[in-house]
Amino acid sequence: MRVDAVVSIKNLHKTYQSGFQALKGVDLDIRAGEIFALLGPNGAGKTTLISIICGIVNPSSGTVRAAGHDIISEFRAARSAIGLVPQEISTDAFETVWATVSFSRGLFGKPRNDAHIEKVLKALSLWDKKDSKIITLSGGMKRRVMIAKALSHEPRILFLDEPTAGVDVELRREMWEMVRQLREQGVTIILTTHYIEEAEEMADRVGIISKGEIILVDEKSRLMEKLGRKQLIVHLSEPLTAVPDVLAGQELALADEGFSLVYSYDANQENTGIAELLRHLNEQGIDFKDLHSRQSSLEDIFVDLVHNGKPGASPVSNGATSEKPNVPGDEK
């Protein structure tokens, strides 16, 4: 386990009784105090991986340590360091917010601490709802209560499994701000999300899981620089019905009903091919009225990796080990 790793996973496998192999030799170190985004399509193994770390599902083989504690032999110590906000909202509908969050703290053997519960509820804008029954709250408020429960016992590691699913944009941004504040307080955040802009906005590092294997882990900024591509969009004066034969060998596609020509290129290459493209357009008598470029988003990179497998010879850095290569419907 690396010195700065708060979660360390080594050669983790999980095969269910049905024979389905959900995880295949996962190696991953998550650093203390970072926001780590775990991305993958439904069924890739995200929920299984989180469930094993949190002690909900037993691994078939391999080791996991959380805050220095083995999750099997030192279960209580490991679990007390972890807070989990699951995808599903499950609380006692007829309990008050204060009661359910206080009860969650007691489940971890923590002594009563009203000041901490008050601090958590205020941070999540739940203080004025502290005496309200859960059943009376909106979906967004119920999700905040789930986060409050996960923070009630002062964990060092917080798992957010699709935390903003089904909530409006304003609440999502409020939650992002709350997550940043938690990181500033030293809490390590592991985030799974279908909103890839969420990872692009917040994460320090990104891991991509596919078919039970980690295919890549890297710093978000380095990932986008290393694997990101640029597109030059050429807005044409007259529409084209097809890409001219002379340009067939280039990475070109028509868009906007033929009024736009989209050229993909590697911005890190000395020769981007843009000058040659514009020369060919001029030679073919293809006039354009405007052009602009855009950088690949994290979503573009994610989709490309999931559909095409591992990036060529790109080095994979998970902070400790090299990685391997998602699948439909996350397993429980």
Provide a short characterization of the protein structure.
With 332 residues, this protein is an alpha/beta fold. The chain has helices at 46-53, 75-80, 97-107, 114-123, 139-151, 169-184, 196-202, 220-227, 274-283, 298-308; strands at residues 5-15, 21-31, 35-39, 61-66, 69-70, 82-85, 157-161, 188-192, 205-210, 213-219, 230-236, 252-255, 260-265, 288-295. 30% of the residues lie in helices and 26% in strands.
Describe the structure.
The structure is a single chain. The chain is of the alpha/beta class and 332 residues long. Among the domains are: 5-81 and 155-225 and 303-308, Rossmann fold (3-Layer(aba) Sandwich); 230-295, Alpha-Beta Plaits (2-Layer Sandwich), CATH 3.30.70. Helix content is 30%, strand content 26%. The protein contains ten helices and 14 strands. The chain has helices at residues 46-53, 75-80, 97-107, 114-123, 139-151, 169-184, 196-202, 220-227, 274-283, 298-308, and strands at residues 5-15, 21-31, 35-39, 61-66, 69-70, 82-85, 157-161, 188-192, 205-210, 213-219, 230-236, 252-255, 260-265, 288-295. The strands form three sheets. The protein has a six-stranded mixed beta sheet with strand order 6-7-8-3-9-10, sandwiched between helices. A four-stranded antiparallel beta sheet has the order 2-1-4-5. Strand 4 and strand 5 (69-70) form a beta hairpin. Helix 3 runs parallel beside helix 5. Keywords: ATP-binding, Nucleotide-binding, Transport. GO terms for molecular function: ATP binding; ATP hydrolysis activity. Residues 311-332 are annotated as: Disordered. This is ABC transporter, ATP-binding protein, putative. Residues 7-236 form the ABC transporter domain.
